[in-house]
Design brief:
The protein has 276 residues and is α+β, with helices and mostly antiparallel strands. The chain has 13 helices and four strands.
C-alpha cells in the first residue's frame, strides 16, 4: 500500500505531466457527482497521456480523505487544460508589436481538415465522462479495491505459510536432486515455480471471474446514477479510441480477460435498463 502512495505522488509525475483540471462545467459536475455518493474528493488532475498513446482512461487514487481523480487528456473531447494554455499564448501574442502583425498576411486553412475531423472524434462529452467516473467511483463505493487488497494480502500470507511448511520437507529436495542439503533458494524456486503452479492458475482464473463480476457491478452502479445511456455511448467511443475489438470467444475471454467485452457490457446494461 505504501508503494501505491509513493508511485502516485512521486514516481508517476516523473513520467507524465499532471495538471489540475481548471474551473468550469466539467469540474463542477465531477465535484457534484463525488459529493452525491460521499466520495472524499481532494483534487482533480488531467494527465498528458496523448504524448505516448491514444489510450483513454480515468482512475482515482489516494487514502482516506485525500482521494484524487485523474482523467487522461485523450478522454476529454474538449480539453480545458489545452484551452487555458492556448488562451495564455494568444494573450502573449497579442502583446507583440502591432506593426509586425499588420505586415504579415492572414493565412487561412493551414490545418488539415482531416486532422481536425480526427481530433473531434476522439474523446467523450462531459456527460459521458461523468458516466465513466460513475463506473470508477462505483468500484470505490462497492468496496472492490478494498476486497482486492484483502484477497492479495491473504494470498501472500498463505503462500509464505505454505512455504514455511514445505521448505523443510526432505523428500521434496531429494526429488529434485538435493539428497544431502536443503538450500533455501532452491526450496523457494521449487515451491513457488512448481508446487504452487496449479494453485496460481486456479487463483488467476478465480480473480478473473471476480474482476469481471466487479466490472458488471460498477456498470450497474453507474446505471443507478441515471448514467446508463451515457455509459453505453462512452464505452463504444472508448473501445473505438483504444482500438479495441468488440467480438471475443466467450471461453477464451472468460479465462484471460479481466474485463468483459464491449458487447457483453452493452447487453448487460440494456438488460438492467429494461428491468428498471
Amino acid at each position: 500500500m505504501g508503494l501505491i502512495f509513493i508511485y502516485a505522488d512521486y514516481i508517476a509525475p516523473l513520467f507524465d505531466r499532471f495538471t489540475p483540471l481548471p474551473d468550469g462545467d466539467l469540474r463542477t459536475q465531477i465535484e457534484t457527482l463525488a459529493a452525491s455518493i460521499e466520495f472524499p474528493l481532494y483534487k482533480i488532475f488531467v494527465v498528458e497521456g496523448s504524448k505516448r498513446s491514444s489510450h483513454s482512461n480515468a482512475y482515482f487514487f489516494g487514502f482516506y480523505k485525500n482521494k484524487r481523480i485523474v482523467l487522461f487528456d485523450t478522454l476529454l473531447e474538449e480539453n480545458p487544460v489545452n484551452k487555458e494554455a492556448s488562451a495564455g499564448e494568444a494573450a502573449g501574442d497579442g502583446s507583440e508589436d502591432s506593426s509586425d502583425t499588420a505586415s504579415e498576411p492572414e493565412q487561412k486553412g493551414d490545418g488539415d481538415p482531416k486532422d481536425e475531423e480526427k481530433k473531434k472524434k476522439i474523446g467523450c462529452s462531459n456527460d459521458e465522462i461523468l458516466a465513466v467516473l460513475g463506473h470508477e467511483l462505483g468500484h470505490w463505493k462497492l468496496g472492490h479495491n478494498l476486497k482486492n487488497i484483502i484477497i492479495s494480502q491473504v494470498n501472500t500470507f498463505l503462500c509464505f505459510f505454505l512455504f514455511a511448511l514445505l521448505s523443510n520437507w526432505k523428500e521434496l529436495y531429494e526429488a529434485f536432486g538435493f539428497p544431502d542439503s536443503q538450500p533455501a533458494l532452491i526450496g523457494l524456486l521449487i515451491i513457488f515455480q512448481f508446487i504452487f503452479s496449479p494453485y496460481n492458475e486456479l487463483l488467476s482464473f478465480l480473480m478473473t471471474v471476480l474482476s469481471r463480476r466487479f466490472e458488471f457491478q460498477a456498470d450497474t452502479f453507474a446505471l443507478g446514477l441515471n448514467k446508463g445511456a451515457d455509459l453505453c455511448t462512452a464505452l463504444i467511443k472508448l473501445n473505438k479510441d483504444n482500438l479495441g475489438f468488440p467480438v471475443h470467444d466467450w471461453l477464451y475471454a472468460a479465462w484471460h480477460y479481466s474485463h468483459p467485452g464491449l458487447l457483453e457490457r452493452l447487453r448487460a446494461l440494456d438488460f438492467k435498463q429494461k428491468e428498471q
